[in-house]
Structure formats: C-alpha cells, structure tokens
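WARN retry 2 of 3 for item q-0093 after timeout on previous attempt; input resubmitted unchanged.
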Amino acid sequence: MVYIGVTGWGDHDSLYINVSPRDKLKEYGAHFPIVEVDSTFYAIQPLKNAEKWVKETPNSFQFIVKAYQGITGHQRGEIPFENKYEMFEAFRLSLTPYLKAKKLAMVLLQFPPWFDCKKAHVDYIRFCKRELSGLPLALEFRNQSWFREPYRERTLDFMKQEGWIHSICDEPQAGEGSVPTILKPTNDEATLIRFHGRNVYGWNKPNGENWREVRYLYRYTTEELTEWLEKIKKLEKQTKNLFILFNNNSGGDAADNAKELIHLLNIQYEGLAPKQLGLF
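OK item q-0093 returned
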C-alpha cells in the first residue's frame, strides 16, 4: 500500500478554508492518511499533545514521528537531560499515545550533514537502535559518504541486518551534505520516501535567519513527479507499505505536489476524515 502525505500540518494553506489553527489536523485528516510530526524534533512533546493529535485523526491514520534533535546530534549545545539515557527514555515515553492507538507508522532518525560514515557513528546508530528497541525506526542520512563506494552496499546491508527502514530521499545533489536517491528497501514491512525539493542554491545556502525557508522552496513539476511513478511501483513490490512525504513546504507547494502524486497514481483513500470542518 502507498500512503502519501506531507511534513507537519500547520503551514499548508491550500488545505484550509476558514479553519482555525486548533482544527487544522482534523481537516488535514480529510486530505491525507499520514503526516510527519516535526515538532518532536525541536522538543520532546508532552503526552497531552500526542493524545490530542491521536484523538483528532481517523482510526486508520498514521504518524511518522521525527526523532528529537538531541538524539540525532543536531543540537550541539547542552541537552535538558541529566544524561543520554534519560533523554531516550523521555522520548520513548512521549510515543505512548501513538502506540496505544496503533497509529505509529515509524520514528524517523534523520542525521545531520556532519554525521559521516565512520565506526563511531555506526556504533552510535546501533546504540540508538538498542535504546529504541521494539519501535519501527527509519534512518535518513545527510552525508554523502554513506553511499559512496565502497560503503554504499555495506551501508544498505547494515540497515537491513539491523532492521532499519530506509528513508529514500529526493533532494538536490549538492555535494557532501546531500545523498543520492538509492531505490533499495531495507525492511520488508515499510519504506519511506521524502521529497525535499531540488533547490540546489537553497541547499547550499549558509545558515542564516531564513535558510530553512530557502532550502525547501521548490515545486515539483508534473514531469518530475511522473518520473517517480515506475520507481514507486517497483518499490511497492519490494516492501509491504510505502510511505511518501513531501517536505518542500516553504512556498506552500508540498500539499499540492502530494495531491498531484496521489492523482497520478490513481489512489483513492478510504477512511479519511470528513472535509470542511471549519465552515460552521
């Protein structure tokens, strides 16, 4: 089965007409069957937030939860925990509502561009797997070294042996801090595809006040999405569930591109929420 959605639910204006911010997730569930929760990257969320989100979505709805930045090493300063074990435990506990509702598709661990292919980092990935054991875990790299020869096949074999879900990327080919699109599942149950756009200039722009907005400012053309149709069909034969997320949302393009891909694949989702909740 192919599930398509976007990252976050608050910034996609084309989905909402007269919908208050507190009701956006309810309306989002009328359009897509999955969503990436990205607020969990910036802070481990209190249980009440996840409980609310679970309650506001249809029974079949699935969440892809992005791992806290302290886990993946994006946060270079102090983390607000006594030690890393406490941090992992707090994050695991925050996932309880999704697990109870059977709405956790996976947890995404996206490592930063400076997380390169070396033994210490392989060991840390193994540590993450142990600390989050029993959870469906997806792995996404942002450093080209993992897929450069002679490590490419070894990286994929490692992910398969360790049970990681491969997060396949469509992103700008912009040097060391980007990865190629590797169309190989590493988990029989699930594979993730994330569309980050192809804005090479934005990808290489030095970090500044608006670097994130520039990086993900991109709208896929129909031709570019059509190129993916055969790739998706092949991947679907190799993994039970294929989850696709559009992260090119700086200019409001993610939701439109996601809907267009659903149309191109001729997918009709059942069990979505009723639409236009904000009209009354």
